[in-house]
Amino acid sequence: MKLAPVLALAAIALFSAFKPALKSETFIIDTKASSIAWHAEKVTGKHNGTIKLASGNLVFNGSNLQGGSFITDMKTISVTDLEGEYKTKLEGHLNAEDFFGTAKYGTSNFNITKVTPAGANQVTITGTLTIKGITKPLSFPAIVKREKNAVVAVAQNVKIDRTQYDIRYNSKSFFASIGDKAISDEFTLSINLVAKK
After folding, report:
1. 157 Cα distance to chain centroid
2. Please, is 108 exposed, middle or buried when counting C-beta atoms within 10 Å of its C-beta (0-12, 13-18, 19+)?
3. Of 39, 64, 107, 140, which sits 20 to 30 A from 22 (CA to CA)?
4. Residue 59 · residue 68 · CB < 8 Å
5. Residue 179, exposed/middle/buried by CB under 10 A (0-12, 13-18, 19+)?
């Protein structure tokens, strides 16, 4: 009779160990509702703009972000702080070979490889960013909220070192005597993703 409680506890422990895992769910990024804004600085000023998402998804396990990826359409680079001829000229230069070379490299992509919890609705996202065919690791904090069949993920001031992707135009790291024509090696992205099932 004394064995009964022991066997019951053993059975409970056994079934608990084989408790079914939560099912992974994929949310498709709404490219029209989502946005990416960029900010770049130079010695004599700064510029702002946007770039459009081509596609993407976020994978969840329950309420936890597990993975995902998104692709940006590099040919949609837009400058928002200029108008007319100056806007057209800068957008043309950003598409040119000495910047993003969009005729050859029409897309860039980010793939999530790890998500680390960092507080309520806060995570650190680690992944790989590919620009101009060059892939480098990238990590940044983000706020991720899931409400039933919708997800919002926001990351502000994500720093990218353009020289890691062979974009060296007017970089003081490579052209020390460039003076006031220097452009910062880093630019930042503000990412706002909206995804739905």
Report:
1. 11
2. buried
3. 140
4. yes
5. exposed
Rounded to the nearest angstrom, the gap between the alpha carbon of residue 109 and the centroid of all alpha carbons in its chain is 8
Note the pTM of the prediction, 2 decimals: 0.86
pLDDT for 103: 97
Which residues lie below 8 Å from residue 90, measured CB to CB, with a gap of 6+?
47, 79, 82
- With H, G, I as helix, E, B as strand and everything else as coil, classify residue 134: strand
Angle at 154 between CA 151 and CA 158, to 5 degrees: 145
pLDDT tens digits, 161-172: 999 999 999 898
Q: What is the pLDDT of residues 149-191, one digit of tens each?
A: 999 999 999 999 999 999 999 898 888 767 777 999 999 999 9
Coil, strand or helix: which one is 101? coil
Helix (H, G, I), strand (E, B), or coil: what is residue 2? coil
Six token digits for residue 49: 């703009």
CA atoms of 102 and 29, how far apart (whole Å)? 23
Q: Between 148 and 115, where is the model more confident? A: 115
Distance, CA of 90 to CA of 82 (rounded, Å): 9
Q: What are the DSSP calls for 22-69, one per residue?
A: PPEEEEEE-TTT-EEEEEEEETTEEEEEEEEEEEEEEEEETTEEEEEE
